[in-house]
Every structure is written in structure tokens, then in C-alpha cells.
Amino acid sequence: MAAFVETLLDAFHERTPIRAGSLIVTVFGDAVVPRGGVLSLSSLHDIMRAFRISDTLVRTALSRLVSDGWFERWKVGRNSYYRLTGRGQEAFARATLRIYAEPPQDWQGSFDLLLLDNGQDRAGLRTELSGAGYGALGPDLLIAPAAVAEDGAFLRLAGMPADLPTARRLAERAWPLAEIESRYRRFLEAYSETLAALERGAPFTTLDALLVRILLIHDYRRAVLKDPLLPAQLLPKPWAGGAARDLCGAIYKTLLPAAEGWLDAHAESDRGPLPGADRDFGQRFAAIRPLAPRKAV
């Protein structure tokens, strides 16, 4: 195993506790869903053992994910197979847009303001709207740079700030931008040496490439899914989110051919080897260029 991969795995295992279920969701969402969505338990064990996670911990995590409605499981002979449920696929489809697609660039100059109705499920509605990218200016007043939510238990207003500095102050009040940026900075610190190793031409195997790819997305999504992805005009300058995205995309696309090579050779579904990736897969980090081609050893 390459030294830069060992470094990432050491850092991963310094976290307490190890959330095997969350990592399994990343494996499926990033690598398996684009290739048919089904993976054998034996193939998953091969991947998770490389992450230094025991078969027992994997089975426990899978049992919980099935019980909670995120995965479904079935057997063919003595072999077990898993895939995300419809609920799990919907959740990762929403996350996919935020992780891999280009963030919004243009802002039209006005905010979408939602005044929540004083109903019984107001807390649930706030949580749902927050997940859709709305920030809070008060207990009942939510804000977004563009209309995202459809009709609901709220009154929709349009607000146009007096000037751009005022708009930025509203953004800083509505979203924890300093906390979000610190997440991006930690991500940059964690993976800057990985990028440097690839730029130096450090050798790696196809399994190394898959492990780094999965850890990369696992850690990047922890930052980006907390980010409302505001247009650049509303963000502080400088903003670490752009650098984090560029670094993530460069590493991801550089390692992608080798990582897919491991899946081609070793990963199996209930119908044999995994099928090829779907059409949308090629659009991940579409605007970011990989490093010069690197071949796995």
C-alpha cells in the first residue's frame, strides 16, 4: 500500500468512533450506484478490510442500515447482496448534486424569504427547508438566494437588499459560514499531501486508488453537505470552499480510472461483474481537470 494511502487510513482511524455504516453508504453512493447499485457482501468485505474494518463491524453496520430502511438485502445461494432502498437512493441522489455538480455561479440580486406558519410540524418543516439550503434569520423567517422550496406551510416573500455588502451581512447572519469554511480548511489540510504525492508521481495500486477515492468523497461530503452553496457574490473573500472543490475534483478524476479498474476486476453483483457506469457518471466534477494521467502499478 502506498505511503500516502497509509497516512490517510491512519488519520481515518484516529477518529472516534469509526462510523462503518456511514462509510458503507459512501461506498455504495459513490462507486456502486452508478454501476447498477448491487454489491455482494464478499466484495464489500474486500473493500472494508482494506480500510482496516472488520467483517463483524461491517455486518453489524449493515444490519442496522437494513433495519433503518436504508438498504435491502437478499441471498442467492450462500451469497448475500445489498443495495440502497428507494429512500436511500433518493437521499444520495440529492447529495450527488451537491457533491459532484458545479455550484451556482450567478445571483439575481434578491432573496427568497419564507415566513413559516405557526403549525404543529414547524420544527420538521424548518429541518426540511434547512436541508434544501435555507438559512434562518429568525425562528420563523428563512432565507435562500433563490427559490428552492415549492408551496408549503409558509408565506413566500421576495426581498432585495439595498446593496451587496448588506446582502453579504444577511448571508453571514443566516448561515454559519465561518464554521463551514473551517470544515473546508480541515479538508484541504487532510488532502493537500495526497495531491502533492500524486503530483510527484508516487506509485499506487488500483485498490489504493479506490480507497483514496472513497475516503476523499466521504470527507468532502461532510463539508459540502453543510454548505448552502451560495453564489460567489454572497461569500466572504477568500472562500476555502472553491479550493476544496478544486482539490477534491483533481484527486478524484486523477484516481478514477485506476479505481474503476479495481471494481472491474474484483467487484460483483448478483449477476456477476458490475456493469459499466451510467451516463451521468462522466459528468462528475466536469469542469475540473485531472493531473497528467497516472497508471496504477
From TrEMBL:
Transcriptional repressor PaaX-like N-terminal domain boundaries: 19-88
One of the GO biological process terms: DNA-templated transcription
Ranges of residues in domain Transcriptional repressor PaaX-like C-terminal: 175-264
Coiled coil spans: none
SUPFAM superfamilies: Winged helix' DNA-binding domain (SSF46785)
Name of protein: Phenylacetic acid degradation operon negative regulatory protein PaaX
